Amino acid sequence: MKFVDEFRDPELGRALSGEILSLVEPGRHYKLMEVCGGHTHSIYKYGVDDLLPANVELVHGPGCPVCVIPMGRVDDGIALAHEDGVIFTCFGDMMRVPGSQGSLLEAKAAGADIRMVYSPLDALRIAKQNPDREVIFFAIGFETTAPSTALTLKRARAEAVPNFSVMCSHVTIVPPLRALLESPDLRLDGFIGPGHVSTVVGARPFEFIPADYGKPIAIAGFEPLDILQAIVMILRQLADGRCEVENQYTRVVPYEGNLRALEVMAEVFELRPHFEWRGLGFISHSGLRLSEAYADLDAERRFDVPGVRVADPKACQCGEVLKGVIKPWECKVFGTACTPERPIGTCMVSSEGACAAYYNYGRFAREREVV
Amino acid sequence: MSNPATVSEREQKILGIIETARGKRAKFRDSHITMAHGAGGKATQTLIEGLFVPAFASATLGAMADAGTVEIDGIELALTTDSYVVKPLRFPGGSIGELAVNGTVNDLAVSGARPLALSLSLVLEEGLSAEDLRAEVQAIADTARAAGVEIIAGDTKVVERGHADGMYVCTTGIGRRDPRATLSPSALAPGDRILLSGSIGEHGTAIMLARNEFELDASIESDTCSLWPAVDALLDAVGPDLRCLRDATRGGVASVLNELARASSVAMIVREGDVPVHPAVAGAAEILGIDPMYVANEGKLVAFVAPESAEQALRALRNVNGCEQAAEIGEVRTTPSGMVLVQTSFGGRRVMDQLVGDPLPRIC
After folding, report:
1. Which of A26, A273, B33, B186 yields a CA-CA distance of 20 to 30 A from B211?
2. In this structure, what are the phi and psi dihedrals at residue B282, rounded to the nearest 5 degrees?
3. Which residues in chain A have their CB less than 8 angstroms from residue B363's CB?
4. Which residues from chain A sit within 8 angstroms of residue B357, using beta carbons?
């Protein structure tokens, strides 16, 4: 594919891999966190970690938008989906995320009208096609998807669609990163910054990472060469003793972000005082809800939402896994109470989460040998 | 995931627990049937291994081949059955009627049996237009003739409007086991080569696009066709060196490879760059965030061949009409046992796992 294959050139990959090797000090172990689930996916899909020296380790971060949704929120969604006359819509990969009583996929099998959509606009279209039904869109995601929800809400308002509402579970990227960085036991050397989120928020919001915490960050695209190049940038900062925000993804990410998108978000959303993250607990000002101006389109106000909080099991140590303090297999519940079939924490929920990856591929990841 | 080489005692213990859990026979514990149970991945396997196989306690069924065998007076007959519930009924490159014939013919063919005859059951929805029915009956007749099988028994039921998507078709096929074939899912040996009969992902992609949920346009046609000519050519060329055949339908090539890696307790390594994929399929998969290796085919087989006969088998395959793009895509190894690994075009390696549920598109 033109304009895609160029970013997957194996020869350039080998060159970058060699550059990485020349930048690392042999006795030192490097832990770099890729913040975004999209990066985790690319690293897995192309086998990027296979091209890194043994002392450069990638730690999967908190940026998988479906995995961070807590059980209670999934339960609330399922409760809404079971309301009479409701069509509940959400993104495909959200359907598998377990609540305390199963997933949306299972609720669909049990009779709820739950439909997968590709865009919030599809949900709005379903609302217009079914005027006698209430259509709810389960809005999830970081700043990447929030603008499209905001635009859809503006359109619903403009077109006066009375039977459309949004259950807003959008989250923001900076608070969980700050929470991670605040912890005294953090063992990370640098960050691969989230490319998609940055197309909206820009590079500026990440300045606190080098300024306040002394860690380098390189915002990266999602092709394998992007990721390798970002790793080179971070390692070079470490080698030079520099520490700053660098932008590898300049072909898409402007330093100031997308001002139009930020404007629309500011109009439609406001910060929640706090929001619960699966595995990470409550984080202040980390979630979005609809602003007063859009309160009538807020599903949580239009319907009775149980709002039950289901505590993450005490034994779950996702937080420590994310911070790089422990390995998946060092968690107390790993492999016993917490498995890919019955996941507890965010790291096991996503097939690309650190724990699920270790559970499924640990043997291979360990030996790295095919005989 | 690149780790220092030492494995602690605790990690070793955890790896042991995982291995034990993996080795256990799948249990069917779900409270309801979900779409994942029909997707051909892990959930389907739970249903088959956890419910059906133990209930029917048949050794033939337990072998989990594409067709079962009955022996009558020294003649081995293969029997298989399949239901077709595709939506829409007609799609670029084919229709439900063509699928219903080719799908069942192919299950016989990859079992090493020459397809002889089919039965045909129709479940029709009240209100189905006679024109649509007539078209499908014609399609069934034409496809059966092309595949050299006769329709020799049938049944019709009509259900109320809303209880079937226009029509469901079920066919049962009977074939005669070919004496040249010594195929078994557990016959794979390290060193065996993996051949693919052509480009992948066309049927599944054509159906997805025909449903028009994505507002994508591309000229992709279903690959539905009879695989008997390909099987016949392979048996002729390399006979006993052919270890096993599978048609890569639901769950795609990835599911077939995983199933057989487990059945034969071997590892496999696939070279991603050698897997033929039509550019339009690759493009659609890229946009939808789906891996073509997991997308359904209706006219592609995977063949495992002893290394010394691989070239000959490939040459024979490429001479078959429709298999010109056949390729050797990888080989069988020893460890890690039960795992399928991919050498990516980019130069890395990764595990190509069994599908957990329906392939759901990613949001980002």
Report:
1. B33
2. -60, -40
3. 65-66, 91-94, 140-141, 145
4. 96, 105
User: Which letter, b or e, does each residue of A297-325 get, where b requires 16 or more Cβ atoms within 10 Å of its Cβ?
Assistant: bbbbebbebeeeebebeeebbbbbbbbbe
| A88-111 average pLDDT score | 90
Contact of B345 with chain A, judged by CB distance below 8 Å, is answered with: yes
CA angle B160, B165, B166 (to 5 degrees): 75
Closest to A31 measured CA to CA, from A342, A324, A310: A324
Assign B6 a pLDDT band (cuts: 50, 70, 90).
low
> Chain A: nearest CA to B75, how far in angstroms?
41
Question: How far apart (Å, rounded) are the C-alpha atoms in residues A161 and A165?
Answer: 9
pLDDT computed for residue B363 by the predictor: 56
The interface residues of chain A toward chain B in range 260-319, judged by CB-CB distance below 8 A, are none
Q: What is the dihedral of CA A196, A197, A198, A204, to 10 degrees?
A: -170
Question: Is the ipTM value over 0.90, yes or no?
Answer: no
Averaged pLDDT score across all residues of chain A: 91
**Residue of B140, B260, B288 whose CA lies nearest to B201:** B288
Of B291, B265, B278, nearest to B344 by C-alpha is B291
pLDDT at B3 over 60: no
**Residue B66: closest CA among B281, B279, B302:** B302
Helix/strand/coil percent split, chain A, to 5: 45, 20, 35
Do B156 and B124 meet the contact criterion of CB atoms below 8 Å apart? yes
pLDDT at B300 over 60: yes
As given in the structure block, the two tokens for residue A254 are 């402007």
DSSP 8-state secondary structure symbol assigned to residue A161: -
Contact present, B95 and B89 (Cβ < 8 Å): yes
pLDDT at B270 over 90: yes
